[in-house]
Amino acid sequence: MPSLYIHIPFCLSKCPYCSFVSHAGMNELHQRYVNALLREAKELCRNHPDAPLTTLFLGGGTPTIFSGEALATIITGCAGLFGLEHDAEISIEANPRTIDAAKLLLLRASGVNRLSIGVQSFQDQELRLLGRPHSAEDAAHALRLAKDAGFTNISLDLMYGLPGQTPDSWRNTLERAISLEPTHLSLYELTIEQGTPYYQQQEQGLLQLPDDEAVADMDQLTATLCREAGLVHYEISNYARPGFECRHNINYWQNGPYLALGAGAVACMNGCRRQKINDPLRYCERIESGQSVIMEEECLEPAASFRETVVMGLRMLCGVSRENLQSRYGLDVEGYYEETLVRLINQGMLELTARHLRLTARGRMFANQVMAELV
Ligand code: SF4
Description:
Helices cover about 45% and strands about 20% of the residues. With about 375 residues, it is α/β, with parallel strands linked by helices. The chain has 2 domains: about 5-255, TIM Barrel (Alpha-Beta Barrel); about 315-375, Orthogonal Bundle (Arc Repressor Mutant, subunit A). The strands form 4 sheets. Strands 9-10-8-7-6-5-4-1-11 form a 9-stranded mixed beta sheet, with helices on both faces. A hairpin with a 3-residue loop joins β16 (about 350) and β17 (about 355-360). It is globular. The model has no long low-confidence stretch (mean pLDDT about 95). Iron/sulfur cluster binds near residues 18, 22, 60 and 62.
């Protein structure tokens, strides 16, 4: 059964490192966007009556920039159209400054059972440099409110490799996060994306990023502190208490099917990936006039889809299942990659068992290079 992703492309402000489809302001468009989403959902549901959904994920942008009522309308509307499995995972991303007790209670009542809070750092100085519209205390307060509202599955997003960050300040951030007892941590290294203000600053030599040695120390700290806290490393950038791994994202990493709604959202069904138009106003206009909102479509031939499934699956620490590859594509990694695979295994990058192919600890340090050879 498919997953459904809903993109809310609005934020309080635009962070200078962000390359996501997200826009500050545009408040006057919010209600119109909710209506457009529901209209697109009706259309999508007609073409995909094979639901119920196993997971529903509201991401952004900042979904919680919407009122609790608007979010409840979207969630219950989609649940009514597609149906939800009895144990469906329903996640929402939140910025600490956009949630309060009433909104959280409404989200819980609408069935949301997983909250992902974008904290990024527990150092106010780092948050300022990141252009985040919240403080460390706002983030801790948001997590306490979420627990009070009955959320038992809470993820915190943190970033490392930040301007001005040191292994010590990363340790402080991680220790503070762990002390709040989240069930899940997403820990991403900052990447400088073209077209962002950070990219320009880097080009001008104005961005003081930690060097490779400091970032390696941060990686080491992450491994140690998460292990000590009982948070299991299950994907390159994700850690969870056992049983709290994000099912929606696991479906992505397994290259499974997913539907999508909203401006900038990407869907993947039957081997075809469809990207919706990015501009929220044009998205609304096209939905309202009954026109397609698909901007790009790419259908992979089976061998390319096989390679993509291998590479995405290697992000998971358990690796990619050979049995699943065989039943899905009729192909095995040994026969397909031949000498390339043997070489990567001999270099200590990959480990092949009877059931899985996975990255070794060394392979995870060079994950991008290994994946580039296999894609
Ligand atoms: S809050 Fe997230 S989506 Fe919004 S601008 Fe910042 S990084 Fe981008």
